[in-house]
Amino acid sequence: MTPVELSRTVLHAVRRAVDAGELRVAVPERAVVTVPGPGGCGDYATNIALQLARPSGQTPRRVAEILMPRLADAEGIGEVVVTGPGFINISLRGGAPAALVGEILRRGVRYGHADAGSAGGTRLRCPREVRALVVADAAARLLRAQGAAVRIVCDGRPEDAWGAVLGVPADVEAYDGTRGPGGPGRDAVVRPVPAPADPVPLGRDAGRWALLYPAAHDRPRIDGEHLVQREGNPLFRVRYAHARTRALVRNAADLGFASEAGDVAGAPGSRELLAVLADHPRVLGAAARDRAPDRLARHLVAVADAVLPYLPAVLPRGEEKPSAAHRARLALAEAAGTVLAGGLSLLGIDAPDHL
Questions:
Q1: What is the spatial distance between Cα 311 and Cα 314, in angstroms, rounded to a whole number?
Q2: E strands present in 112-201
Q3: CB contact burial 110-138 (16+ within 10 A = b; e otherwise)
Q4: Residue 45 is inside which H or E element, if any?
Q5: Which of 10, 176, 311, 346 is the most exposed place for a label (fewest CB within 10 A)?
Q6: Who contacts 36 (Cβ-Cβ below 8 Å, separation ≥6)?
């Protein structure tokens, strides 16, 4: 069972409780499923009971207790435990890591994207300033990945170099003074702290990263450090981690084997890596909702920091022959590379196979 399937299972449990009259709430559109936090257990956790407590007029713990038996009966679920004020922790029957890796490899760079479009549209309005336009472009990419229709309007015509070098889209419209979709006040205003210097000399990838990596309220740093190829540079670390995963796939092919999702238990760092990969859809949804591409950028750094220590355990060593364990470990590394490539693409940044 993948995180997406588990989210649907949680919603189905809520719907059954509502139909039985045990909960009087509107069934939410989605249930957030993440890795367990401190004090949690199992493979995944959800805060759906805390979300429904107030509208249902019951305590979070009572809501969780109502949902527990319905979740425990679901196919693929092994154990359900409530911790803290009402967090529901779920252990899956065998194969949860393999299912996650298989889902990522099947979806490719679209892992974490929404399956269906959303109603209506969003209009992003920004001032005529380079960082605002780059942030608006990245936010639009994230929103479209979640199924939204998006337009960008600007208070002035962007400079040619912003499009030619930094990839600001050519179809940015001039703001005409009208309201956004849905009536007055429906424009989503994108107005981050302006760039203190011209990012164009950094080129597309480093220039966009310099503008997108800091939170909107933080002043971006525009200097040559973004071009330096060393581990202290977060952009290099992310791209290097991706290139390393691609190199492992090539090296495995030379050894005569390919990736196959399977059991990675015992591989150093696999649990930490699986946790950040499972969290990717949630991060994409939150970054799109809040128009905050910096959240995705920081998440990619977390993926890179989790995958780099894991990679030495992937390939056979010495006279060791490739086994099912090596194929499974390679699949996890390949999945991490896929998430890094997909995330960089949403930021408008290239993910080269060689560095």
A1: 5
A2: 121-126, 149-154, 173-174, 188-189
A3: ebbbbeeeeeeebbbbbbbbbbbbbbbbb
A4: strand 44-46
A5: 176
A6: 42, 43, 44, 45, 83, 87, 89
* Radius of gyration (C-alpha) of the chain in whole angstroms: 22
Of 148, 152, 158, nearest to 190 by C-alpha is 152
3-class state of residue 228 by DSSP = coil
pTM of the model: 0.80
Q: In this structure, are residues 90 and 43 in contact, taking their beta carbons and an 8 Å threshold?
A: yes
How far is 124 from 116, CA to CA, in rounded Å?
21
Q: Which residues contact 273 (CB under 8 A, 6 or more apart)?
A: 303, 306, 307, 310, 332, 336
Q: What is the DSSP string of 72-133?
A: HTSTTEEEEEEETTTEEEEEESS-HHHHHHHHHHHHGGGTT--SSPPSSEEEEEE-S-HHHH
- Residue carrying the six token digits 């890094």: 340
Cβ atoms of residues 140 and 344 within 8 Å: no
Tokens of 349: 């940044």
**Backbone phi and psi for residue 74, each to the nearest 5 degrees, phi listed first:** -70, 145
Question: What single-letter amino acid sits at 212?
Answer: L
| The length of the chain, given as a count of residues | 355
Q: Which residues pair with 316 in a beta bridge?
A: none
Instruction: Per residue of the chain (355 residues), give pLDDT as tens.
Output: 677 788 899 999 999 999 999 999 999 988 888 878 778 888 789 999 999 999 999 999 999 999 999 999 888 888 899 999 999 999 887 667 888 899 999 999 999 998 665 545 789 999 999 999 999 999 999 999 999 999 999 998 899 999 999 999 888 888 777 666 554 446 899 999 999 999 999 999 999 999 999 999 999 999 999 999 998 999 999 999 999 999 999 999 999 999 999 988 788 888 889 889 988 988 998 899 999 999 999 999 999 999 999 999 999 988 889 999 999 999 999 999 999 999 999 999 999 999 8
